[in-house]
Amino acid sequence: MDAPVYARPAISLITEGLSPHNSALYIGGLDGARDLGLLKAHGISIVVNCAINLDVNFVRNPSMPEEGERCASGYSDIRYYKLGMIDGGGSPDTMMLGGYYILHGALNQQLPKRETYPFKDGGNVLVNCRSGRSRSVSLVGLFLHKQQPDLFPTLDAAIAHIRDKRELRQDEWFETPKPMLYDAARRASDWIDLIEGRRAADGGH
């Protein structure tokens, strides 16, 4: 049985000071992700969408309008990255690993300074899924553990911090995040250590 879904902020500040641009990292659900005014108020210029069953169209003034079977396209004020995980089982664990590197890349890209890249480097980041309770929590927990290990020496410590900042109550912890996503983050943590030449973690993550 699913836990009750309590009222909580549309977006929640999780951490600050992420290099190289001293960016802040937020988690939110659909209501937060689709609110351009809210994103701008928090300096959020990057959105990483974890959900496969959720799309947000940030293009307000398309350079190529909809025409017959052709969808509109163009630039937006938001740099938008889409991961597309399932909220539960069904996604390969490697998608969590891919999500980590997508988020890392979004923060660290050095964008060309030309007309076809109308974005600034850096900016604050929102990681979203439908409610900001499971997919986003698992990915951001993994990211905090690997990027701020002095603050979050284990994955469990990172998840505990997110549960507090996101106002996730204890009676919903069994699915915030879902166990299979938590497990995927644990495995991705070990893979990151191998990829980046660090010694694999012993015991807890």
Automatic annotation (TrEMBL):
Gene3D superfamilies: Protein tyrosine phosphatase superfamily (3.90.190.10). Residues 121-166 form the Tyrosine specific protein phosphatases domain. PROSITE patterns: TYR_PHOSPHATASE_2. CDD domains: DSP. SUPFAM superfamilies: (Phosphotyrosine protein) phosphatases II. This is Protein phosphatase. It comes from Pararhizobium polonicum.
